Amino acid sequence: MSSDAEAEFRLDTRRVRRAFDRVAAGYETRAVLQRTVEAHCLARLDLVRLAPQSILDLGCGPGVAGRALLKRYRGAQVTGIDFAPAMLRVARQRRRWFSAQRFVCADAQALPLAADSVDLVFSNLTVQWCNDPAAVLAEAWRVLRPGGLFMFTSLGPDTLKELRNAWRAADGATHVSAFIDMHDLGDALGRAGFEQPVLDVERFCLTYPDVHALAADLKAIGAGNVTAGRRRQLTGRAAWSAMEAAYEPFRSDGRLPATYEVIYAHAWKPLVPRRHDPAAAQPVTFHPARRRRP
């Protein structure tokens, strides 16, 4: 991606934070796909041998995953970090008395945690909201103890491809974020120092009666257009109508599809950290994509 394209797709962090703050109260019930992906990611912990005492729930939102992690790992301490203050207020309200769950407002790209202090970093659909994913991976590696696990999900480049293509045909402006390819993410894990990275993709298809319903759903989960390359003025009726017309060829069985490409990934911090060499290749395991409806 060229430097101009990178600038165009760069996220406006303040707008991202405000968007999540606005939807915090109802996020847990409206974010159906996010909860589904979270459940699938949590289930993958069954496949690893791990007894963490200290867990980081990175991008914790209203704290749902953290509560599930406490049930799974009795006696563990869970720290939830999110950069949206309203999300953390909701999480604190729903925390049980005497729960071993604490919350900190911070940026995933600069964690306020000591090095080698966490056994498990769990992160659901957070990496794609960061302008510097490499910094997120580096921070996860830094705070993990040797032998610790980083398990996370992110969105791949086919996410909202129908909406992206429809807007491109309508006005050519940036309306949908760019997302990292699974293979690039696997390479980035190796460069960050992780070992045995395993990644696979699952594609979900949500359907809507019309584009207005899709837009309302995205707004309700804080996933509006927050790219730096967005148009500053309101989208005109002509551009919106052109986008609707361009979306119509995707209609199937009377419904408009919205594709989400979800990347599942996990990797380990080595017991003996290897000498950092950005050029050193690490073997990465990729699995074929699966499709499902949430």
TrEMBL record:
Upper taxonomic lineage: Bacteria, Pseudomonadati, Pseudomonadota, Gammaproteobacteria, Immundisolibacterales
Protein family (similarity comment): Belongs to the methyltransferase superfamily.
Domain (Methyltransferase type) ranges: 56-152
The entry's keywords: Biotin biosynthesis, Methyltransferase, S-adenosyl-L-methionine, Transferase
Enzyme Commission number: 2.1.1.197
Record-linked Pfam families: Methyltransf_11
GO MF annotations in UniProt: carboxyl-O-methyltransferase activity; malonyl-CoA methyltransferase activity; S-adenosylmethionine-dependent methyltransferase activity
Class of this enzyme: transferase
NCBIfam families in alphabetical order: BioC
GO biological-process terms attached to the record: biotin biosynthetic process; methylation
Catalysed transformations (reactions): malonyl-[ACP] + S-adenosyl-L-methionine = malonyl-[ACP] methyl ester + S-adenosyl-L-homocysteine
Protein name as catalogued: Malonyl-[acyl-carrier protein] O-methyltransferase
Gene (name only): bioC
Function: Converts the free carboxyl group of a malonyl-thioester to its methyl ester by transfer of a methyl group from S-adenosyl-L-methionine (SAM). It allows to synthesize pimeloyl-ACP via the fatty acid synthetic pathway.
Pathway of action: Cofactor biosynthesis; biotin biosynthesis
Species whose genome carries this gene: Immundisolibacter cernigliae
